[in-house]
Amino acid sequence: MPVWLREHSWRQTLTAVYLSLPLRGARATPANIFCSEQYLKVSIPPFLFEAILYAPVDDTNSTAKIGNGNIFFTLYKKEPAMWDSLTLANAGKKKLQHLRENAVLKAQEKAKEETEAKKITKQEHKRYALEATMKLEEAERKRIEDLKEKERQKVAKELEFWKNQRKDADKYKSIPKKRESHQEIEPLKERKNEKTNKTRIPNEGTSKIRLKSTKGRHGSCSIFSQNLKEEQLPPPRAVATIKVNFTPRVFPTALRESRVAEEEEWLHKQAEARRRINSDLSELEDLKEEEKNPDWLKDKGNKMFATGNYLGAVNAYNLAVRLNDKLPLLYLNRAACHLKLRNLHKAIEDSSKALELLTPPVPDNENARVKAHVRRGTAFCQLELYTEGLQDYEAALKIDPKNKNIEKDAEKIRHLIQGTMQSS
């Protein structure tokens, strides 16, 4: 249920009514106030103020100010007069309902008219902006066309001036040519007369000789032209040897016998493994720059293995693997150390990891794959898992069938397997 606000104060003049409404701690916004010609409502939940005014007011110019815990209304009267009271006395519920509905309908109609007016105004502004833009574009187009016309006229004038200069120059050149032609006409006529006089009464012998000489001249000219054509031909090419250089290959096998795709994949994997270094290890803070290189650590582990320091070699390989876990030789060498230290399960794990990284199988990693199979097979045999060990030795023999040592060891394992089967 709303709480009706009964406390309010008001005063009036002939033209306006000033109403003050306390808020009682509530917070009001313009959305909480509704005012029409004869209906005033303030709804601030849970408070409600509603009044049917004594006479109509100008709701367009009337104002409401919110501040200091009050709402101050300034209501301008439509007709100057003094009111007997702020609200209409003896207003029943039906009349109140009728006035309320009429006020809401008028407010809706007014809002709709304002919306339509704003829409029309917006369209007019758009139309005006479009017309202004079109006028500007037309003016710009006209300015560009005027500039083009001026340039065209300028170029036409320059071309006409150039043509006139050419005509004048041709006239000045033709004058001395005419004089020279008149001077040369007379000696030419005299020469022609002399020639006609000489050839007027020819002899038969001379005519025949002349015909033969002309034929000879014609023949000599054709031979001379052929000689000229032969002389224009380029000289023959000098004899020389052409060297053919073949692209060097990493693998020793011939290209027709090799598996190019597997070889390229292996080289790519090795290059990626060389570039990959995990530099986020705390152990690297105390190491020198060369000690952060997995290849340097591998060489150091190899030297320790050669001197019999297998634990030191394992530590070197461990750090190298932490720096770069994609190099198969690190696991292969560490497997050899574990075999010496009798860490057979670790030797099997490292050999298996090395075989996993030694893919695809190519001639470049044959030796490493043989070692991995042999070391894993040795670890299996020392664990008395002879069947698994024999499988590794046979795999090594498939890779390197000419290795006699592996063949002998495989034969020994077969005898051991046969002996255990007979004893069982």
Automatic annotation (TrEMBL):
<keyword id="KW-0524">Neurogenesis</keyword>
<keyword id="KW-0966">Cell projection</keyword>
<keyword id="KW-0677">Repeat</keyword>
<protein>
    <recommendedName>
        <fullName>Dynein axonemal assembly factor 4</fullName>
    </recommendedName>
</protein>
<keyword id="KW-0802">TPR repeat</keyword>
<dbReference type="GO" id="GO:0007507">
    <property type="term" value="P:heart development"/>
</dbReference>
<dbReference type="InterPro" id="IPR052004">
    <property type="entry name" value="Dynein_assembly_factor_4"/>
</dbReference>
<dbReference type="GO" id="GO:0005634">
    <property type="term" value="C:nucleus"/>
</dbReference>
<keyword id="KW-0175">Coiled coil</keyword>
<feature type="compositionally biased region" description="Basic and acidic residues">
    <location>
        <begin position="170"/>
        <end position="197"/>
    </location>
</feature>
<dbReference type="GO" id="GO:0005576">
    <property type="term" value="C:extracellular region"/>
</dbReference>
<feature type="domain" description="CS">
    <location>
        <begin position="3"/>
        <end position="87"/>
    </location>
</feature>
<dbReference type="GO" id="GO:0036159">
    <property type="term" value="P:inner dynein arm assembly"/>
</dbReference>
<dbReference type="GO" id="GO:0036158">
    <property type="term" value="P:outer dynein arm assembly"/>
</dbReference>
<dbReference type="GO" id="GO:0043005">
    <property type="term" value="C:neuron projection"/>
</dbReference>
<dbReference type="InterPro" id="IPR007052">
    <property type="entry name" value="CS_dom"/>
</dbReference>
<dbReference type="Pfam" id="PF04969">
    <property type="entry name" value="CS"/>
</dbReference>
<keyword id="KW-0963">Cytoplasm</keyword>
<dbReference type="GO" id="GO:0007368">
    <property type="term" value="P:determination of left/right symmetry"/>
</dbReference>
<dbReference type="GO" id="GO:0030331">
    <property type="term" value="F:nuclear estrogen receptor binding"/>
</dbReference>
<dbReference type="InterPro" id="IPR037894">
    <property type="entry name" value="CS_DYX1C1"/>
</dbReference>
<keyword id="KW-0539">Nucleus</keyword>
<dbReference type="GO" id="GO:0120293">
    <property type="term" value="C:dynein axonemal particle"/>
</dbReference>
<dbReference type="GO" id="GO:0007399">
    <property type="term" value="P:nervous system development"/>
</dbReference>
<feature type="repeat" description="TPR">
    <location>
        <begin position="370"/>
        <end position="403"/>
    </location>
</feature>
<feature type="region of interest" description="Disordered">
    <location>
        <begin position="170"/>
        <end position="201"/>
    </location>
</feature>
<dbReference type="InterPro" id="IPR011990">
    <property type="entry name" value="TPR-like_helical_dom_sf"/>
</dbReference>
<dbReference type="GO" id="GO:0003351">
    <property type="term" value="P:epithelial cilium movement involved in extracellular fluid movement"/>
</dbReference>
<feature type="coiled-coil region">
    <location>
        <begin position="104"/>
        <end position="154"/>
    </location>
</feature>
<dbReference type="InterPro" id="IPR008978">
    <property type="entry name" value="HSP20-like_chaperone"/>
</dbReference>
<dbReference type="InterPro" id="IPR019734">
    <property type="entry name" value="TPR_rpt"/>
</dbReference>
